[in-house]
Amino acid sequence: MFAGLPELGISNGEDLKETLTNCTEPLKAIDQFQMENGILLPTLQSALPFLDLHGTPRLEFHQSVFDELREKLMERVAIIAEGKEEDRYGKLEELLEKSFPLVKMPSIQPVVMQVLKHLPKVPEKKLKMVMADKELYKVCAVEVKRQIWQDNQALFGDEVSPLLKQYIVEKEAALFSSDLSILHNFFSPSPKTRRQGEVVLKLTQMIGKNVKLYDMVLQFLRTLFLRTRNVHYCTLRAELLMSLHDLDISEICSVDPCHKFTWCLDACIREKFVDGKRARELQGFLDGVKKGQEQVLGDLSMILCDPFACNTLVLSIMRNLQELLSQEALPRDSSDLMLLLRMLSLGQGAWDMIDSQVFKEPRLDLEVVTRFLPAMMSVVVDDHTFTVEQKLPSEEKSSLTYPTTLPDAFNRYLQENRVACEMGLYYVLHIAKLRNKNALQRLLPALVETYNDMAFGDIFLHLLTGHLTLLSDEFGSEDFCSVVFDGFLLTSFSSKENVHRHALRMLLHLQHKVLPSYMETLTKTLEPPKQVGFKTVKKLLHQKREK
Which superkingdom, per the lineage (predicted)? Predict the structure, then answer.
């Protein structure tokens, strides 16, 4: 407990034991020991007997003086470090040399840690000693740990890894939340609110102003994104940069070439729309990537691959298309639309770009604009024509029935092109938001086969289930249930646990709307096979039965 005192020429318990073992008059020896090791203040000696008269133990007195002095010393260390003196760090290093031998002594340890914390560059030898001792490493300040981490990527990785896992778990929990709502969904929290999340705040604190640690975290995120294809790592990449931006950490923001692009995009995500002015600003950043610096496209694509960015881009594309439709203009003639598609395409190609290390913007298939979008618009026109037809007086009505098939180009691009598929899926959400049952029944069967099974991804299913709550009364009809469940969700639930979970989330919510006979059949169908470890699915089924 008092290791290190003899090195500083201060007696400890062992010395007292030795003195008492070898002396002839123990009381005198104790007096002598107290004189030599007590507080060396002549005026104090005559005052101490007063404390004895009050029954105050000497230990209590010395302890209170010690605590007071320790606080004063720690305050002084902070004042020296924050001062302007040229030799301030020299003074602290001198104090560190004197106090470090006592670092294992609980009462002195806070002082040593305070000195270490305020040294911008702790001597290498001391850092290694702290790193080698688990207890010391645990209690040292994050400022000291940063100095250890920057030269020990593996150790830093061990500290960061649980946080990254926690982040993914939280995102997935939000996607599978039992609250189905169009108002409060995965994309509802504002960027600023999301940056207040525990993981982002902890990572921001761990990085501080250290560019080397920031680069390490980005490297971890790139590697994990490559390994798992999980787009939530792209969200964290953007959130981390913007969290440092909020704290005004120019040491990092000024050297991250994506900073201004991310800042501008963050404002668009906040508004859930990319307006013309910001669109041109973002275009300026993309066009400004210089020769020899193409690698920055890898990071920009990751930032555009963030689901929150992607959501904003596609919502903006939908608004753009509606405007074009009202102006009877062609998609290819809108420069704003072409830019949004360019960014969507860059974001969608993030994984391929980072994987291949070929930093070149993916070429947007122009037929998406000349074939797919007109096909999608024709679906809108069909719907509009039918609605107008229904409002006509009976003698003027034609025998028009609602179309059930979709244009070939629409189906083909939904299956073969990533950018087209993303727009197609958002169009389905748009139709659900309008509570357009006819159009929904026409579109849902087309989603069984989409590019890379995108229609069965968690983000789309989370949004679709939320949007379908607007049509909850329609679930009283077996035809509508059949389109949603038999025609879409149940086509892949047995091979995809996530689809199974989303189907059950819907059933839990629509419990009282679905026809009892259909409900019974559905529940039996969704019962997971005995041997399969669908733990979460079983839990959801249990909740459903209880309800």
Answer: Eukaryota
Q: Kindly report whether the global pTM for this prediction surpasses the value 0.70.
A: yes
Of the candidates 508, 509, 489, the residue with the CA atom closest to the CA atom of residue 499: 489
Site of tokens 């409060």: 184
Q: Is 321 in contact with 337 (CB distance < 8 Å)? A: yes
d(CA 349, CA 241): 21
User: Within 10 A of 198 (CB to CB), how many other CB atoms are there?
Assistant: 11
The Cβ of residue 145 has, within 10 Å, a number of other Cβ atoms equal to 22
State how far the Cα of 374 lies from the Cα of 377, in Å rounded to an integer: 5
Tokens standing for 110? 């806070």
CA quadruple 74, 76, 77, 81: dihedral sign:
positive
Smallest CA-to-CA distance from 513 within 464, 546, 547, 462 is with 547
Span of 168-182, 192-206, 408-422 with lowest mean pLDDT: 168-182
Q: Are 29 and 20 in contact (CB under 8 A)?
A: yes
Residue with tokens 């300026």: 284
Q: Which helix (H) or strand (E) holds 315?
A: helix 307-326
Q: Which amino acid, 55?
A: G
Phi/psi for 527 (5° steps) reads -65, 120
pLDDT (tens digit, 9 = 90+) per residue, 328-378?
Answer: 888 888 999 999 999 999 999 999 999 999 999 999 999 999 999 999 999
Is pLDDT above 60 for 530? no
Decide: 157 and 203 in contact? Cβ < 8 Å: no
CA dist., res. 38 & res. 45, Å (int)? 9
Task: Count the Cβ atoms, other than its own, within 10 Å of residue 37.
Answer: 14
Q: How far is CA 440 from each of CA 380, 383, 528, rounded to the nearest angstrom?
A: 12, 11, 28
What number of helices (H) and strands (E) belong to the chain?
31, 0
